[in-house]
Amino acid sequence: MGTFDYNNYHVVGIVENIPASSHSYIHVIGYTDAYSYSIHRYSTPDEAKSVFGKKGRVFAYMFAQKNPNLSGHCVILGVIPNEKPGEGLDEYVWDWSVDVVDLATPVVKISPDTISYNGQKNYDILCEHNLIDVSSDTYFESNGCIYQIKAHSVERLIKYWSFSDLEVKCRDSVILYSGRFYIAGNLCENTGVADITTDEQLVDWFCKKVLKPRWDEFASKQDFKNIEAGIKEVLNSVNIDSTIYNARLKRLKTINTNIQLAFENLQDVANNPWFASILQTAVARFKENYVSEVEMANNAELKNLKEEHDFAIEAEKERFDNAIKESEALLSKVQAENKEKISALESQSTQLELEVQKLTEAIAKRKNEFEQEESKLNKIIEKKESIIEDFEVIKEVLSIQSCSSSMGTSKLTDFGSALTNADTEQEAAMYIQVFMKRLELFLKAYGADESDAENTTYLLSKNNILVSNDMRVIQSIIRATGKCTYMYEYVTPKWNCFDDLWNNGLAYIIEQALNNPDKIFYLVLQNMNLSYIPSYIQPIVDVNLGRCEVIPVNGYKYPSNLRILGHISEDSLIPVSIYAIEHLGCSKKLKFATKKPDFSALDLPTGYLSPDMLNESQVKTNSSTTYVEDYISEDE
Asked: Which residues pair with 108 in a beta bridge?
């Protein structure tokens, strides 16, 4: 089997959406260079199969979901080799990084209907196939020709090209695949035109172009046999195809025998003496009967209108009365509520006066206490020298203890909880989208009202520390990874420096991560805002920002397969400011329904998230959103 130079060439193919799936197959018909779009077509399907496998196609993961309007179109897209092993799998897959080009539009087939020289019949066929007033230029195939309908066109003639002309003159603009035509670009000069003029349009033309201009001539002779000659004369003045000319003439001859003048046409000829004489005779003959009939109809209509009017007035009166009653009831309710509010405000005012009195007494008491403390301070100042001597002794003792306690802090010591393995998958996933889909499904199983799986994945790839407002998000990340090791640690108010994080699990899990570089490790910190976050986490942030390359305690390089997953509690703990978390990966706050998760019914894609794939995705990612504002305390 041959190989395809996917770095310098792109594939040209027909899109086939896979039923009941978000994916598609691209049936390869040729290729083009990546810069000029000069198309090289394969002469036979076997030529494509020799390069792209025995089915001659490319597998496009999630193509149908991302490009729902391209089903059946001819497109240009990039491909890469399929690194996922397995018999029956396609040799190449769609490369998301290359823009998709909609190269050619499919031609609609309307058989067994056939376009003829009868404009009314042709118009009816186009209406039946929704080809009238189309939103974009559309092509359809009928009786060995391809016809063009222009977007929002009101023209009565449409262009067509015969198959033989397309083969000889327009070969570069037409693609034929599996018995179906595709139009790419502008076609050559058309073979001819087809008529789509309706009978109604012909009647309108007949009245305006033939009957009205020559009415005096026809009326003076009181003979309408000359109308056909007038039709031919006017048709000859219009430069149209002879077949269309003959077809329209035949239809107009039929229409002329049964023509009925519209009211506006009668007004144009009403002043003609001959026609006026006919009208006066008819009016005199039928006037009395007509007046009587009109009077009876008007009386009946007047009676019906009066009844409808009386009924409408009664209904409106009833509605008005009900509205007055509702307004009065609402007014009484509002007055009662205001009375209660005034009473409550008076009670609150009295209570506030009592509180002010108590505060005044408390201020006086505190002032007295302050004076007492000031007196004590003055006594201490008097004994300043002796106190300084005492503190010099205490300082020497503390310095000895500090030296003793700091020894050995650079060792990797296990002060944390036990490590736990979560190994549910045996093979590494081929695409980062597998992890995104697994994360989305686990979040829904936990009851999340929405999924921000894609953005959360990119935040996890870019940041050594990812924080969330709910432990169910962290549990979903661990489960979605498929193969990882994790441990939980609980932040306490006593944490006030990096040593507290180091000695409570970080040192131990770093040692394990360095010894197992092919597996992802997670350190989960619960209730990070029980202490001031930057006081113990800042060195890890500095590593993530590139301010330093090693961990300050021991000089180790931070493992690329280790992530810290932090939980920030929504309870009133240490206030969180923007400066405390602006350089952390902050996932979107999600709301969860109260329910027990059921993982048994999940249709999970297979494959675990490897450290290499996680770190590669941060290079490919153009942007991600970190929701810092979701975690900032209101008083900040």
From this structure: 140
- Sorted by sequence, the CB contacts under 8 Å of residue 603 that are 6+ apart come out as 441
Query: What pLDDT shows up at residue 571?
Result: 76
Residue 633 CA: distances (Å) to CA of 449, 468, 509, 572, 573: 23, 14, 31, 9, 10
Residue 636 forms part of a structural domain: no
pLDDT tens sequence across 355-410: 888 888 889 888 888 888 888 778 767 666 655 554 444 344 333 333 333 333 33
Distance of CA 311 to the CA centre of its chain: 51
Q: Report residues of the chain scoring pLDDT below 50.
A: 260-264, 390-416
Cα maximum dimension of the chain: 142
Q: What is residue 227's predicted lDDT score, i.e. its pLDDT?
A: 66
**Do 190 and 210 have their domain in common?**
no
Read off the amino acid at residue 261: L
Cα 284-285-286 angle, rounded to 5 deg: 100
Query: Which of 216, 249, 269 lies at the terminal end of a domain, its last residue?
Result: 269
**Does 204 lie in the same domain as 173?**
no
Task: Based on the fold, state whether residues 265 and 275 are members of the same structural domain.
Answer: no
**Total tally of structural domains belonging to the chain:** 5
Strands (DSSP E) contained in 152-207 are 157-162, 174-177, 180-183, 192-195
This prediction's pTM: 0.40
Quick: pLDDT tens for 38-69: 788 888 888 888 888 888 899 999 999 999 99
Query: What 8-state DSSP symbol labels residue 504?
Result: I
415 occurs within a structural domain: no
Buried b (16+ CB within 10 A) or exposed e, 354-393: eeeeeeeeeeeeeeeeeeeeeeeeeeeeeeeeeeeeeeee
The pairing of strands 138-142 and 108-109 is parallel
The one-letter amino acid code at 201 reads Q
Question: Smallest Cα–Cα separation from 478: which of 433, 431, 438, 513?
Answer: 438
Cis geometry, peptide bond prior to residue 112 (ω within 30 degrees of 0): yes
Domain that holds residue 254: 199-269
Measured in whole angstroms, the distance separating CA 620 from the mean position of its chain's CA atoms is: 21
Domain end residue (candidates: 79, 105, 131): 105
